[in-house]
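Consortium newsletter contribution from the modelling node. Members have asked for a concrete example of what our holo predictions look like. Here is one, prepared for the magnesium ion complex that several groups have been discussing at recent meetings.
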Amino acid sequence: MTTDIRTETASSAGPDRQVSPPEDRHATELAFLAAYDSGPRPPSWRLTPRTVVTFVMGSNGEALHLPESAAAPEGVPRRLVVEQKFVGDRALVERCVVTLAGERGLLLVGEPGTAKSMLSELLSAAVCGTSGLVVQGTAGTTEDQLKYGWNYALLLAQGPTRQALVPSPVLTAMTRGAVARVEEITRCLPEVQDALVSLLSERRIAVPELAGGEDALAHAAPGFTLIATANLRDKGVSEMSAALKRRFNFETVGPIGDLDAETALVRRQAHAAVTRAGAPFQVDDAILEALVTAFRDLRDGRSAEGWEVERPSTVMSTAEAVSVAGSLALAAAYFPGDRDVLSLLPGHLLGVVRKDDPADAARLLGYWDGAVRRRAEQGSATWRTLWDLRSVLES
Ligand SMILES: Nc1ncnc2c1ncn2[C@@H]1O[C@H](COP(=O)(O)OP(=O)(O)OP(=O)(O)O)[C@@H](O)[C@H]1O
Ligand SMILES: [Mg+2]
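And here is the predicted structure:
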């Protein structure tokens, strides 16, 4: 039982929300894909495994057509281009889907800001129609948050009854045959993680407080599985036990390999940020490309030309690049003509680089004196301007 705290007037995908979950944001695509492929699906799945992959990776710009025999659900078009959401390896997404189809736990590991959480939301929305059965792992996460708690008013009035039981998102997913998500699992204490070991092997949760043998067990319905994420950089409060690791298939989500793909993603998301604000998008492609290039050089410790770059300790993630691009686009929209947008880039880069260790500012300066200077000397106008802005970094 989850409590719905939306106001009466809020529509499910209405503009009165800052962020809509993927099942609302992409409701049309999900309904379309459910009608598009009538092939066999694993128990409780809304879509076939193949269309789950199509939902995440998009239809390559091609319009998909509903087969003649399929009725289009209300409000759903007969042809649709499915938008690409996750930029990355299709084979990785296929493996994730196969893991879930086999009802095994899926663990997405990787550096911060590589879209692990986004991928887990998209997969669960596509498989079971909700990404909302989620527990956020922290050092303060308790076993109750993974299993069940009690409504104390009812508990006092009625004693331990089924009505007084407050299921965790994981228990709800078990009884519905849905996908539960556990974010940042390695931040949970070992004894809390251990609760998942028995849950994932026995596929049931005992509720000893309830009277009556079998009745006191909650069994997992077919289709139940779990997607967890873990951040390599944070290392977490605790390592996962070998027993827990064995119950998951691991997939490592890496940074985006291709410069053009990363630039296109950053442009799309910055565009979306200003469109939400109702303002025009006025950032040149050359600026976005310089921004993404700088992020990639500093992330990889090597420039595209093969020059050595000293890496700062901060992770220069795509997620950070998206947020810097969004800020540049908003600055251009709200303060048009005040300043050249490119002139804002060094300051933003400095802000990101200095997050972990203030000493990293010197590394950024080193990048300027190396790669940025050399590109300026080679005649690139954008990099020439950036080189001229070097003093911003010295303050
Ligand atoms: N490969 C990618 N495909 C699509 N979007 C991406 C990709 N990598 C990063 N992003 C962007 O980064 C944002 C943040 O991703 P998300 O929060 O899911 O990362 P995360 O890996 O869970 O990070 P953390 O480890 O900090 O929790 C996404 O919403 C998206 O805008
Ligand atoms: Mg995350």
